[in-house]
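Notes, Module 5: Reading structure tokens.

Key idea: the token line is not a picture. It is a compressed description, and you learn to read it the same way you learned to read a sequence, by spotting repeated patterns. We will look at two proteins. The first is printed below with its tokens.
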Amino acid sequence: MNHSRRKFLGSLALGLAAPAVIGRAHAATTIVAASLLGEDKPETLIWRHIADAVEKELPGGFAFNIVPNAALGGEKQVVEGIRLGSIQASLSTLSNLSTWVPETQLFDLPFLFRDVEHLNAALAADAGTSLQVQLAAQGIVAPAFVYYGARHLLSTEPLPTPKSVQGKRIRIIQSPLHAQLWEDLGALPIALPITETYNALSTGHVDAMDLTKSAYAGFRLHEVVPHVTETAHIHAAGSVVFSSQFWSRLSREEQEVFTSAAVEGATYFNELMEADERSSVEAVSKEGAIFYAAEDRGAWEKGARGVWDLFADQVGGMSQILALKDL
């Protein structure tokens, strides 16, 4: 086991004890794994990869029931199921997890990370390990982080500058940080589950939203918001998550297998996501989506910087923010 996996299991042991007995009954344990997107998307394919890795090491021990297309609810509802134990596994953005661990908002601060390499370095540091411990205390085991891509602005008309956003109704995730970001830029944020956004955009209830390019294509949002301003204001991190109720019933050996499978699955997911983003842009461009470079990037960054000050106390202080910025 490599250092990061030992570090994760060691930190998790502070809050969740594994049974000493390794043996289990002959019947396979069912794992309900929820995915927001379809069978061919990375959010679902990762669970096939993890299931295969677990089966290789623990043959016949576990049966994965992978439920795609948000059939078990939106992102918030799925994590509520994780905490209750009715769903055993899923992915979640760190944005979504801020409902239970506000410190995850550190990784959602706008224009903090230069690129994915910068983000990954921050997640591998003590700040990432601390999040894993805090999430476990809330019933959410997070053995591996994933990268969804950068969030960009999607809209019914071109919105290339911060000034053009003013007065627009923008769909946001249920996050005070995201609400504050768009309020500071002069927009009117409206929190909606991802499963309701297509209808909200098509009826004019909202004018815009932000999302990664892969999810933009996955939810076919280009049909209702064909304009994409490439702001890359947030590099969206997430995690493989398991229910602590499920995890605590695993032996130490099984926990090591699942941790290893999750880490390998995260690497696989990131590779798929990179390829999926390229193919998604190509596909939606053929169907009418138009991509624009964000104009006056300095103004975008200046308009969003107040969020750092407002949320510093919740995410470990300004010194923590600046330490990650300078990694």
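Here is the second protein, with the sequence above and the tokens below, as before.
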Amino acid sequence: MERRRLLEAAAAASLAALPGGHALAAAAARQQPAAPVSRKYVFAHYMVAWPRGGPHAVLADYVAEIRDAIARGIDGFALNCGGWHVSEPQYKQRALLLYEAAKSFSGRFKLFVSVDGNAQNELDDIVATTRGLDAQLMQDGKPVLSAYALGGRDLARCEALIRQARQLNVWFMPHFSPSRGEAVIGPEQAAEIAKRAEFADGYFFFGAAALPDALARSIRLLAVALKRDRKAFMAPVTPYYRGLASGTNYRAFETNGFNGMADEWQAAIDADVDWVQIVTWNDWAESTYVAPIGSTSGALVYNERFGILLNHTGYLDASRYFIDWFKSGVKPAIHRDELFYFYRLHPVGLQTNLIDAISSRAAFPPRSTGRLTSYIHVTAFVTQDATLQVTCGSSRWELPLQAGVNEAAFPWTPGRPRFVLVRNGQTVMQKVGEETITRNDYSGAFNYFSGSMKG
């Protein structure tokens, strides 16, 4: 499947279509290389507030999480800390446990702090505490430090914190929002970000809360602007986003199974960004997690307020193809058949959901920029041409697959999906999905479930 060629053409068209886009598109051809980084890395955004092992996670719990990440090709965690020692001391305590856990992997897994909220008031202690630790990520002989929403909406404070980080002699790659907000990154916002990052070493784009095509376009625009100013760039890839119904952030962004995440990976590869950060490893509240949850179906993790979390490991495992591509710069050969499936467990349609919400509050849909959809999505990596058969309830579909990466969608229907891969008249592999699609069980809470079968 010529995915890369098609997306490159789409990127060029989207650049040209935007105000000022022709200039950025032309700049892409003559841009200078960014300030060099030591190597291509893939990190995952780790919410120190919510370890998978629970509020009382111990060293062995963190070791297990790191082992899971290494097995999927992840090089380290960006440790999101919303506090540190003075405001919320558990952040510092947990961060030090994570550094101790990473130390046991003999340099194979690196960490750096991403300061958020009140932690931005304690840069001095964060840097002093982590600078000499074995697992601390170093760049140009300096400890790497990142940030989320640096300075909040206060541009002057953001600039002051960048100057403070410079004085602390760290290699600083913060995230901050452009002055008009971050919903859409256009050429003006990309240029503003590059200018404001003048005294930082690079920029981290958090992304996540937007549709995948907007995120992919933002990655490409930012890559051009930051490379032009010789700044390193850490781009995001996100599996899915849906805030909690019980909070103030009840919104969702449709990703059509793995398709959206694949688009973001492709944008990062095409734009030749320096580093990628998977957003996130374990944000249970916004459903952006990719961490294995200890179940192939669903589980309670950390706190009951997050509800039953559905398995998202399919997003992580399907990403391995793109992780290898990004790090090596070479499109990987496919040596075994792998199929990943993604679907919601209940109907998604505004009229249906509002009617059902009369009797069940859980049926009330999150607000969304684009329409949420009801499909069974499949991403298949196949070594040779084959046929995919999908059965669910009384419905059955058959689709030819070409050698390479294939993406397909089948109409949502109640039942338990069954997937069969056939080649030359012989069944290569088959599996029944772990979760059942129903008409009226909204316990899935508009989240996606993922699963896989491998040859």
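Summary for the second protein:
- Confidence is low (pLDDT under 50) at residues 1-34.
- The chain has two domains: 3-328, 338-454.
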